[in-house]
Amino acid sequence: MATNIYPTLREIRDTHAWKRDYERYLPLSRYVFRPLGFLLTWLAIRIGLTSEAVSWLSGFIGLIAYLCLISSQEYLLLVGIALLCFFNILDCVDGSIARTMKTENPYGRFLDSLMNWVDMGFWALIGIVVYRHEQLVYFSGPIEYSPVFWLAAGGVTSYFFILLGYIESTFDQYVRDEWKGIGAKNDTDLKNKTKDKKTSHSFHREIPPFSVVRIIGHNIKVRETHYFLLILAYLCKAIDLLLVFYLFYYFLNTIFLIIIYSNRGRQLLKSYNA
Description:
Elements lengths: L8 H6 L12 H20 L4 H19 L5 H26 L5 H9 L2 H4 L1 H11 L15 H33 L6 H5 L1 H11 L8 H10 L1 H14 L2 H35 L1
Helix pairs in contact: 2-4, 3-4, 3-5, 4-12, 7-8, 8-13, 12-13
């Protein structure tokens, strides 16, 4: 009797078990995009697609979505939004294929990260949408401004979105391990073993349950929420409100994290100088 070489849907889901805690409070990902991703993973494996091929496909879909959204034809906007949602599903699929088929490799991880270019330019893209479609702007009359304002607003929002991610990754790379009290990693650190233990005792904290504020903040930052709110803003003809909200959100969040992370860094510095 022939053995089924293809994984079942349950086996595909099981390879994702490690990420369930992360998506526990992300309903759009957990109940919409991820289940669709499992189904597409099941299909992609059976037609012979690799995770790398799906990554390239997702980038191509993202490019077509961008071209639709910068078009002056309003009917193409919904096509572009739908393609962005499809891009997000494919971004789930490439990793699922690699984990299920045990084909994870550095090139695949590189491609998966490379296709995040779609996120980096998203808010600049929304600025172009508002610039080209005045009928989708909520404040079209009461406030006097040049339409070029929205191009600048989109560019600045994208800048702070990228800067926020850079600040978080820099903190993770240089400070977070020490802040959490994770042990010494090299011979120099081992010479300061006693000091490291003191730092660990001072700064290690148990992760508290997510509060309502943290859950909301966690959802606001993810791609799925961006796309969902874009659909609502399109239907309500208020895409400018969405852009302004995220402009202030990313700007204030960036300033807040700089202050918080700098303060943590100074506290660690004091522990080294003690």
